[in-house]
Amino acid sequence: MIAVEQARGELPAPARALDLSDDQARAEKVAAERRRRVQWQNLGVRIVSLAIALALWQLVGGNIDPILFTTPTAVAKAAVEMVWNGELWSYLWPSLIVLGIGLALAIVLGIGIGLLLARFRILDVAFTVYITFLYSIPSVALVPLIVLWAGFETAAKVTILFLFAFFPMVINTYQGVKTVDPKLLEVGRAFRCTERQLWGHIVLPAALPFIVTGLRLAVGQALIGVFVAELSGATNGVGMLMNNAGQQFQTSVVFAGLFIFALTGVVLTGLLRAVEQRFAAWRPKL
């Protein structure tokens, strides 16, 4: 009987379902292979691009006065020497402590305050003007006051870093919640969702892309805050290392410090992307 149906081009429902599942599995396999191929291609392009950039840098830097510019080999040599004698870690560790504390405070308070201001109209009307007022003041202009009040130790550096990273976090979180479709909230209320359920199932998922963008901006601003804080008379940190090296015309050490900040930003951004993929798996992958 099945042979007759196959001859007519007709298959039983279970057979059709099995055939569709096989087609879907093959399509997913092909898509996965395509993604892996694209990833390897991207990696190859980045490696070639990096090699070309380093070669050009080496060529141009070798023809410039070492006091004014440097080369990748000189930067690598200076970094290896600092790692070998332990000098790099002694400067890096205080910077990482300040970065961790200040950035954590900025993230927690920025997200919390942004959510509250966006969801409750009274708080929005009462306090948003203060956020706008403080954000309009250049954070660098507050550094002398913070140093005057808190000195040059860790508390002052954490405060300076917090001011740099807090506002991108709170503004992006606020904007993300404000852009939630009111119809989604109406549907949630129609199904008698509690406020907690609205936050967990509608508000936070919809605002997550804005929050992640705020996190990325906050990381960049936090690194700037670390550098500014350690230039303002600090007694330790990578910023102080770069400042001292610049005064002694050690250009290679200055570039090594720049690369430390850059690599720190790359690592933190990579971690944020991993977190975004974990908590926003529903979003389409680009």
Largest sheet, described in full? Answer: none
Number of domains: 2
Please trace the helix and strand order, writing H or E for each element: HHHHHHHHHHH
List low-confidence stretches: 1-9
SS summary, helix count: 11
What value does the average pLDDT take?
81
What is the CATH level 1 assignment of the largest domain?
Mainly Alpha
| CA-CA gap between termini | 47 Å
Q: Radius of gyration, Cα only, in angstroms?
A: 27 Å
CATH architecture of the largest domain: Orthogonal Bundle
The count of strands amounts to 0
Strand content: under 5%
Helix percent reads over 70%
CATH topology of the largest domain: MetI-like fold
Report the principal-axis shape: flat
CATH superfamily of the largest domain: MetI-like
Protein structure class: mainly alpha
